[in-house]
Specification:
The structure holds two protein chains of two kinds.
Chain A (H helix, E strand, L loop, with lengths): L14 H27 L8 H7 L5 H11 L4 E4 L6 H6 L3 E4 L6 H6 L9 H12 L3 H5 L2 E6 L2 H10 L5 E5 L7 H22 L5 H26 L7 H9 L6 H21 L10 E6 L9 H8 L5 E6 L18 H13 L14 H13 L4 E7 L3 H16 L4 E6 L6 H24 L1
Parallel strand pairs in A: 1-2, 1-3, 3-4, 5-6, 5-7, 7-8
Chain B lengths: L3 H18 L9 E2 L2 E2 L1 E2 L13 E2 H10 L1 H23 L2 H5 L2 H15 L9 H26 L9 H4 L2 H5 L2 H8 L14 H21 L5 H5 L1 H7 L7 E5 L9 H5 L6 H4 L5 E2 L9 H5 L6 E5 L2 E5 L2 H7 L5 H8 L1
Helix pairs in contact in B: 2-3, 2-6, 6-12
The chains are: A alpha/beta, B alpha+beta.
């Protein structure tokens, strides 16, 4: 890290303060993770296979040791700040991909020294982590790939250039014109070239092929889990499933696939035994909106599933959740160029992020949410927006008008990483779920 | 057996065998009261023993033969074309046509060698539409011109009879398939015009050979038979159907379409995807990863639907263990 006078944004912290912060951060993270897992364990009939994911979710634990060892043997660790970064290329180059979106509350307060509090907490938190060198994985990154998708990500990666080399990727805002596609393909090719230079390994056809096969397996596992969540009775709590999906951020993807398949096997037997995690009449809730990142963003899911009456999150349309490994890389022909094109298109074209627009608006997202409501038998939608996430906030009204017409309850929940608003959130969520519960019971009457 | 391409390959091999080699088993042109079976595919006159007639040949012969011939051959073959077209649409091109099969063989060889392909630009796509309709119109005009008594084209009837058949690549391809290599690439020196037609035929054949594997199914986009059949795609019983709401617009269908149909990707409102380019090969259906987004339909009844499992089997990148995990 080049902490010197050339830094554009980040002030250098005195070493004593840094050390203190690091200690306090480690303790607080371990506490939050433990608390969250403790809450999730209280859910009846929790799958045994979830223990593996509990283990991985600890930031200072098994996975950290693995990555450190990998790095000690000369391996490269590539951080990426948004789900639009082409993970297949990182895997093909033999590097470890780490998604560095941060869900920590404490570092976001440090970030306040650089950017105003109105800015999205993911950004502030990432800045805080970088300043005090807190995040065990972020610290190990050799390079950060930053697709400039939303406003926050665009700027935060500029700020992070003070500490890391950053490869920016220009995301075309109108995604499906031929020009945009060609432009984005160029960006992906550039990343491939840089990656080859960094790791010294050629990303040839064979390497790409095996990387795509790896992510396809992960996609299959992820979709299998999502298909299980469509069934009733529910056999996995929303928080568990979200944790599983979120562990793709930094877990070894091959092992993750294996463990997720094990989890699905267990859930299938549970489904046969009808060992459900919640009573059948629990309202089924779809989460959409801004990402919810482990561990501090678990506030909302915890409140939803623990409130009285409780809801059950059966699906989410978050870029930190089900969407990460939902879309597969579809290779039509095995030639190298076609594979690269398939990788490039997989990230941008089906993406439902509101940073994309077109003359029809973000129609893909609307369609996806509507089919999800049908497929998952959703009773109500919670639209989660964290402060400063303007793109999601601005798309809300369109969705609300549409869902109002279709008589699907949708509720706007704006929140922050801090726990100060927990009480208020609790009241609001309880009121919404109570409304859903009475609605479903009266719907049954008629 | 979720992979539709495998079914299609089986159908193509079977039809190729029937059309080209059934004659050797003793079957002759299938006829009923002097009306022969007319297929809307390039089932060629230049095979030794054909079992059916290509519609284009019937059209040419019917038009240039005068009123009487027109009455007996043209009307029944057009009626048959309409019936077959309305039922199957343009699926003849990708499931039956021997020339289409030859193209697929070339494409398979190219795929095996891991060589990439080119896509036609928007302008060239328009040009291809223009070319195929130019071929249809000139074919009809020349053939009809020969048929009109005392018209000047009558003088050239021996050089220009069946004008399209003279330049069609099947003229060279089928003798090759039957081992009659001497009959390929022949030049008729009877008159200057017939020599020109022969050289044109050789030119078209070379063009066909050179482009067919690098620009996927280019011939299908230039073929006048395809142009006529394409008209029926709008009404055909067998059709490609799409549930727009389930489409994530991932673009895989568009990329894997051999004739670059845009509608399958763009369309979100209409249920039926009707494009005159579409050869109904249903590659998009098998490559679509979204459940039920694309369907093969007979009228409204879906006979095959897209699903993730089918996608995994059809995609070029396969993981061996993957199949097991999914099927569990």
């Amino acid at each position: 890290m080049n902490k010197n006078s050339q830094a554009k944004y980040l002030p250098a912290l005195p070493p004593e303060e840094k050390e203190e912060l690091q200690k306090a951060f480690k303790a607080s993270v371990q506490k939050t993770v433990a608390e969250n897992i403790e809450k999730m364990r209280k859910v009846p009939n929790r799958a045994k296979a979830m223990e593996y994911f509990d283990q991985v979710s600890e930031f200072f634990g098994m996975r950290e040791k693995e990555i450190r060892e990998f790095k000690a043997h000369g391996g490269k660790v590539i951080g990426f700040a948004c789900m639009l970064a082409p993970v297949e290329l990182i895997l093909a180059a033999g590097a470890i991909p780490i998604r560095i979106d941060s869900g920590f509350y404490t570092p976001s307060k440090i970030g306040d020294r650089v950017v105003p509090v109105e800015v999205c907490p993911v950004v502030r938190s990432m800045i805080g982590l970088t300043m005090a060198e807190l995040h065990p994985y972020l610290e190990m990154c050799d390079v950060i790939i930053s697709p400039n998708s939303c406003d926050g990500k665009t700027k935060v990666c500029e700020i992070l250039t003070d500490a890391f080399p950053v490869w920016e990727m220009n995301v075309p805002r109108v995604k499906d014109t031929p020009q945009a596609k060609a432009y984005w393909l160029d960006q992906v090719k550039e990343v491939k070239r840089k990656m080859e230079k960094l790791t010294g390994r050629a990303i040839n056809r064979k390497a790409m092929r095996s990387a795509i096969a790896t992510t396809l397996k992960a996609t299959a596992a992820s979709r299998r889990l999502q298909d299980l969540r469509k069934c009733s009775p529910a056999v996995i709590s929303g928080r568990d499933a979200m944790l599983v999906e979120q562990m793709t951020f930094f877990d070894d993807i091959r092992r993750w696939t294996e463990k997720t398949n094990q989890l699905c096997d267990e859930l299938e037997t549970k489904l046969k035994e009808k060992a459900s995690v919640a009573p059948a009449e629990t309202p089924r809730i779809l989460l959409t909106g801004s990402p919810m990142v482990w561990p501090d963003c678990w506030k909302i899911p915890n409140l939803i599933e623990e409130s009285k009456p409780a809801g059950l999150i059966v699906a989410d349309e978050l870029c930190s959740g089900d969407r990460v490994y939902f879309d597969p890389v579809g290779v039509d022909e095995g030639a190298g160029g076609d594979m690269l094109k398939a990788i490039a298109e997989r990230y941008v074209l089906p993406c439902t992020c509101p940073c994309f627009t077109s003359e029809k608006g973000n129609q893909d997202r609307i369609d996806k949410l509507q089919t999800m409501v049908k497929d998952y038998k959703i009773n109500g939608v919670i639209y989660h927006v964290i402060r400063g996430c303007h793109l999601y906030a601005m798309e809300y009204m369109r969705l609300k008008r549409l869902f109002d017409k279709e008589n699907i309850p949708i509720y706007y929940l704006d929140t922050e990483y801090s726990r100060e608003d927990s009480g208020q959130m609790k009241t609001r969520i309880e009121a919404f779920i109570e409304m859903l519960a009475t609605k479903t019971s009266t719907d049954d009457l008629y | 057996m979720l992979k539709i391409t495998n079914w299609r390959l089986a159908s193509q091999i079977l039809c190729f065998g029937l059309i080209v080699y059934l004659g050797y088993a003793g079957v002759r042109l299938i006829e009923w009261k002097n009306i022969s079976l007319v297929l809307p595919t390039l089932s060629c006159y230049y095979t030794n023993h054909r079992i059916a007639q290509c519609f284009l040949r019937a059209l040419e012969e019917g038009l240039s033969g005068g009123w009487k011939v027109a009455y007996t051959t043209l009307i029944p073959s057009i009626v048959l074309l309409v019936i077959l077209g309305v039922i199957f649409g343009r699926s003849w091109c990708s499931w039956v046509c021997p020339l289409g099969f030859v193209q697929d063989v070339f494409i398979r060889v190219r795929k095996y060698l891991r060589i990439g392909y080119y896509n036609l630009s928007e302008n060239l796509k328009l040009t291809s539409v223009f070319v195929r309709w130019f071929l249809v119109i000139s074919l009809v005009c020349i053939a009809a011109g020969i048929g009109i008594p005392h018209f000047f084209l009558k003088e050239y009837q021996y050089d220009l009879i069946t004008p399209f058949c003279q330049i069609c690549p099947s003229k060279q391809v089928f003798p090759f398939c039957e081992g009659r290599f001497k009959e390929m690439l022949t030049v008729d020196n009877i008159s200057a015009l017939s020599a020109v037609m022969s050289y044109l035929a050789i030119g078209v054949f070379v063009f066909y050979l050179l482009t067919t594997s690098f620009i996927r199914r280019l011939w299908c986009r230039l073929c006048p038979m395809g142009a006529i059949l394409g008209l029926f795609n709008r009404f055909s019983f067998l059709s490609l159907r799409k549930e727009g709401k389930r489409c994530t617009k991932c673009g895989i269908c568009k990329r894997s379409c051999p004739v670059q149909v845009e509608e399958v990707y763009e369309e979100k409102e209409k249920e039926k995807i009707a494009s005159s380019d579409c050869t109904l090969c249903f590659r998009c259906v098998e490559m679509c990863p979204e459940k039920d987004a694309l369907k093969v339909g007979i009228v409204n009844y879906p006979i095959a639907r897209s699903k993730f499992k089918r996608f995994l089997q059809s995609s070029a990148v396969k993981a061996k263990k993957l199949q097991k995990e999914i099927s569990q």
